[in-house]
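Sharing in case it's useful to others searching the archive later.

Someone asked me privately for the predicted structure of Zinc-dependent alcohol dehydrogenase family protein, so I'm posting the question and my answer publicly. Question first, with the sequence:
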Amino acid sequence: MRAARLVDWRAPLELVELPSPESAPDGVVLKVLACGVCRSDWHAWTGADPVDLPHVPGHEYCGEVIAVGRDVRRWRVGDRVIAPFILACGRCPECAAGHQTICAEQVVPGFTAPGAFAEEIAVRYADVNLTALPEAIAPDLAAALGCRITTAWHALTGRAALQAGEWLAVFGGGGVGTAALLLGRALGARVVVVDVVADKLDFARTLGADAVVDARAGDAAEMVREVTGGGADLAIEALGVEETTRAAMLSLRKLGRMVQVGMPAGAHREMRLPMDALYGGQLAVYGTRGMPSWRYPSLLSLIEGGHVDLTGLVTRRIALSDVSDELAAFDAPAPPGVAVVTDFLN
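And my answer, the predicted structure tokens:
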């Protein structure tokens, strides 16, 4: 099978022919239909979130089942499925409690196992992780249901309980931030998007943002407080850097909530944060990573019912040979929207 392999930090991915993967007894092999190029992949590419080299990245994918392990009961060859990027074991106490994203036995393709920048991928724990891909959802959009859209959904509804009528401030207008904008609007919130790239702010406006804030123009937190009439009820930090995390906390009204969605990697693993604002404002700060697979039905119901249109999220459909350029683009503010690999032969 054809795959794009990381052989050195920041080096262009090597296009190679690799043996097709075999399914584990509890797993399946998928023909990859689409795979997003995510900022988390960039962390692996730069070595900020190091993986063992050589390695096939790619963690945001959907596919068609082409092989089934002997212990799998729910899936058959030909089924089209969505996979969460965290594959939980389904047996441990955390999984039994519904907290699959903190499963101690989790497998994360693209990081701890070969990923989906390839024609095929092996997926462990298939019965407890995979979700059927509805016919009405195209594979390029479904790929983002493995990471960015589901991460945003869980942050808004599973962690911070966004309510209709609240102000949501999204710091970072990339893929997960744009997903948070669209989902927040669908839930009845008013949304302000903060970024430093004019094209991303314009993109947010076209997708229905109630307001945008250009952080280059001054104090972003103060501007959000002004736009929202006293501060956001909920802030989503979608970059994983100290500057935006501080601003997100300071943008909140008293008793506000913040969810750290952006991955703090490399130099940002440790941050200096305004703990006086946390204390004085009686704020709640949450971390989040992915979404438990049992929460897919609520999100798919919203999409299939026509209550949210996420198709605008995907702005670039690319070939496997283009992945290196998309990863390098994250060194600077990347273009608006999401790039998704749909051509695995070129």
